[in-house]
Every structure is written in structure tokens, then in C-alpha cells.
Amino acid sequence: MINRSVRSLARSLAAKLKPKPPITMLDYVEKYGYITSPSDGRQKWYTRPYQCDWFLAVTDSAVQCMICMKPTRPGWSEYVKFVLQFFLEWRPSKPMVVQPTDDEVKKYSDEDIDVMF
After folding, report:
1. Is the pLDDT score of 86 beyond 60?
2. What is the DSSP letter of 71?
3. 42 — phi, psi (to 5°)?
4. Backbone angles phi, psi at 86, to 5 degrees
5. pLDDT tens digits for range 90-117
6. Which of 9, 11, 34, 43 minimizes the C-alpha distance to 89?
7. pLDDT confidence of residue 38
8. Which of 106, 63, 55, 60 is nearest to 83 (CA)?
9. Exposed e or buried b for every residue in 64-99, given b needs 16+ CB within 10 A?
10. How far apart are CA 37 and CA 40, in angstroms?
11. Which uninterrupted H or E stretch holds 44?
């Protein structure tokens, strides 16, 4: 009886410690992506065709630098938040976001980062 419960416990523990399968950031966002805002709450994210390359570039090992020329901010703020989520949840690491001033850091942290968690 004890032997079976130990095996069951070991299986359960092994399943929880099993590494997550490799996934592209595009797949991650399509499956887990939600837009969060204080006024609207959580809404499912839908990637537009022109945004797909942004998400694929982050997890492509051949890409060393990404430059994105855009006329406005077409989902860019959400993109940055998804990059943070992906590397905090799926590939644990210590990402860094740089803002131009301390005031911008505080504002970004309060309005965008805190809402994610």
C-alpha cells in the first residue's frame, strides 16, 4: 500500500517538474494571450497578420537584432508585455525593459506591468 502511494506521489511530482515543451512566442500568444486593462478587464488577444513576424522573431535563434519601423503603435505596447510574459512564464529568465525617465518607469510599472499579474 505504501509503495503505491509513493509511486503515485513520485509520478505526480515528476509531472509537475517536467519541462514545458518548446513553443514559439506566436503559438504562446495565440493560446495564452489576453489584453488586460483596468477599464476593460481581460480580453482574448488576436494577432493580426502584420504582427506575426514580431512574435516569431523573438523565439527564432537566428535573429540577433530586430528593428521594427512602424507609423504608430499598432499593438506594440501589448507586444512588449507579451514578450515579458513569455520569458517570465515559459522560458524563465530576467528580462529588462528600459524607459527614458524615472517617471516613465513608474507609470509603465503601475499601468501596464502590475495589471499583468
Report:
1. yes
2. S
3. -95, 135
4. -60, -50
5. 887 888 888 888 888 888 888 777 777 6
6. 34
7. 64
8. 55
9. eeeeeeeeeeebeebbebbbbbbbeebeeeeeeeee
10. 5
11. strand 41-44
Residue 100 DSSP symbol: S
**AA identity, residue 31:** K
- For 22, 49, 70, 77, 96, the CA distances from 74, given in Å and listed in that order, are 28, 12, 8, 8, 22
In the block, cell 506594440 appears at 76
Nearest to 30 by CA among 43, 42, 46, 41: 46
How far apart are the C-alpha atoms of 91 and 59, rounded to whole Å?
A: 10
Percent of the residues in the chain that have a pLDDT greater than 70, as a whole number: 91
